[in-house]
Amino acid sequence: MLVDERGIPLSLVVIGANRHDVSQLGATLDAVVVPRPPVKPCAPQHLCADAGFVGVPALNEMFARDYTPHVRPRGEERTERAQGKRARRWVVEVAHSWFNRFRKLLVRYEKTHRAYVALNMLAAAIICFRNVPAKINIIYG
Fold first, then answer.
1. How many C-alpha atoms does 115 have within 13 Å on its Cβ side?
2. Mind listing the pLDDT tens digit for each residue in 7-36?
């Protein structure tokens, strides 16, 4: 899953649990549904990733799509906590929490891949709609 700075899902790729996330990085970056603004030298587009995306293949995928990668290496958060800094929560964890609130998605009962992807897309659309700034939101009143 790829999210923006507020945790709003931008792309979603469903794969088996036995596959590593880094193997689907290119597919996830290509599945972004929101058109990107043009990349300029004065305004680079940043991509933050966790320690699972350390390595040359992942960096090549990010550079090939004109992102400026920021990959946090393993153990950095532990050393910062030892220095007295607070632990930062990744924005993608907020999106995972929002998806987990849809109890139908928490445990996969759908037999077909298409049905499960459709339910995830519906949940993503509801999450996006709930975060639209409006004076009166028709879902929450």
1. 7
2. 889 999 988 888 888 899 999 999 998 888
